[in-house]
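Task card 7
Instruction: Convert sequence to structure tokens.
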Amino acid sequence: MAEYIYWDIDKPRIINLPVRDLIIDPNLTDPMQLIYQPDTTYAGRRYLSTKDELESMTIIDPEKGEFTKRFKDLDKLKPLSGFTGDDESDKRKKEMMLGAVNEKSSDLLECIEIVSGDRQVTMVNRSVVIEDRENIFKTQARLIGDMNPQGLIPIGVGRFIADESLLYGKSIIDPIAKPQELLNDMTNQSVDAVTDALNPQKELDPKYAGWLPKITNAFGAVYPFTPGSLQPIRKDSIPANAFGERLNIKNEIRETTGADQLVKGVSDEQDPTATQVKAQLNQSSQRFEIYVRMLERELLYQRAKIVYGMIRRFVTGPKSIPTMTPDGPKFYKFDPQQFSADYEPTVRLEASIRSTRQREQSEALQAYQLLIADPTNNLFQTKKILLPKIVNLDETELDRIIGQEEQQMQQQMMGDPMGASPMGAPGVPEPMAPEPVGVV
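Output:
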């Protein structure tokens, strides 16, 4: 999967690119080279458009600060429907029409846009260049006074499992592709064997060959044949090991993907121990976290770096940014002067944040249980520090819960400044009453 990101007047926009429409440098070995080494590589996209759409596209000229037509020489364009002739022209037309919903459209044009760190070029129908300009992000960086202006390649390439020999990496199902094919083959064979058992082939005595067109599988049909002349062909039964082998393959796939029966909520016939259940659940959680981290460090990180580079070039002063929060939308003030060119954004998905929060809550709960077991520790401070980490409480709510406890402790200290235990406290004996004195 890939993304094309562009700056739309005052905000970034994202277009999802199919792999067939992605144009990439064949010498590229890592998608991050598009971010850190834009001057040594290139990338681009292919898309279908019409002449009217291309004429309506405008951009803000960085040098003049005015809207201007993005493309030139549009009067030289010829729709794909005008390509007729030999087989070579028809083949070329089919390649350029790839992805079109309606091949009979008479106004479609194939556009190829190539971007490097220095230039950006757009070509129509692989023959007419309608755009050839300096990388617009490099131009903008120079105009805002950047001492070392550098362009951006607004293309992000995502992959689930990174592979040093494959630019696009591996898919999630790649590790189980061969076992899945084997399971499909064995399933099809079993279905064919069952179908053959329900509708078996039959053999007929050659002397009744004239009856072949009249013989059917109709229920209750009677034929005037000698007993044993028409009978099903005997075949071996399906071995029980075939079903067991399918179960073994399924278990291997579950172990590889971490999608165990317990994770899906399906109970096993055997009674697993608590250790086995916990190990299987942890294994599934770890595999899921790996996929989440790959998304955070690959495509989403590239998107963040590209968008941040655009913001640095086009947002030159403080600006209020709307942000969605659990309490509703809020506006935060963004000042580009507070961030340097080498700022590294941090991308966190909700699943990753939730997993980290659960781990921190578990560690805080263990620490809380350990500290309150020792009577010499300050119970009030222990609650004040660890309770917000265990449960979702803010400072105001926490003060309403344990604030009275602090006041009581202070009152006890003020009433007995020497720290003596009050009367009646455990371990402190009650004072003895004086003996009565008799009067003679």
